[in-house]
Amino acid sequence: MALKRKGQNYYKRPKVPVEHTEFYPYLLKHLEVLEVRGYSKQTTNRRENSLRRFIFWCDERSLTHPNQITKPILEHYQRYLYYYRQEYNDKSLSASTQNQYLINIKLFFKWLTQENYLLYNPASELVIIKPVTSLPVVLSQEEIDKLLAQPDTQKTEGIRDRAILELFYSTGIRRMEMCNLQRRHIYYVTPWLPICWRTVQTCDTSRRC
Questions:
Q1: What is the largest CA-CA distance in the chain?
Q2: Residues in domain Core-binding (CB) (predicted)?
Q3: Domains of the chain and any CATH numbers
Q4: ∠ CA 96-102-107, rounded to 5°
Q5: What is the pLDDT of residues 102-120, one digit of tens each?
Q6: CA distance to 3, 4, 156, 160, per residue, from 151 (Å)
Q7: How many CB atoms lie under 10 A from the CB of residue 195?
Q8: 181-198 residue pLDDT tens
């Protein structure tokens, strides 16, 4: 069974509409700064999605400008994230997801204050959720063998998929690190693989194959 190609059956969630709010010009400027400073497209998109969600929540409460936001309002939003239930599975957001939303908001208001759009930073003392540490789920040898046997190596796509699975298994490489790999990164003489952790192909670490 061949693995699905990237982009197949992928649902891209539409952007939350916030263009009508007074937040929006500041959001555009903030995203532009991120691009100028070399942040990856993925990081910029995550920041935008988090902020759009927060701005939409504010707009529902007639809060349309950054200078209307106070620490109690941010704490109210933090409680909203805590009690929020996802539509497709009725489960709460994980602590790491909640923290990611809150960190993006803290960085946004920090930037607003640094650029003198705000006189003070209402998010400066917002306390991030204490992360819950958990042990990783480890596959058994039987499960690993079954997984590696899934691609049909009689076909070109199956050989490709098997190579991807072998690389994941033998190096512990991350998904985006895999996506950023190019032929020039492969060293056939040494058993080391340079890892490009940004979309700009900056290689600063390596994994043993």
A1: 65
A2: 21-113
A3: 24-114 (1.10.150.130), 135-171 (no CATH), 179-209 (no CATH)
A4: 120
A5: 999 999 999 999 999 999 9
A6: 7, 11, 10, 9
A7: 20
A8: 877 777 666 666 666 544
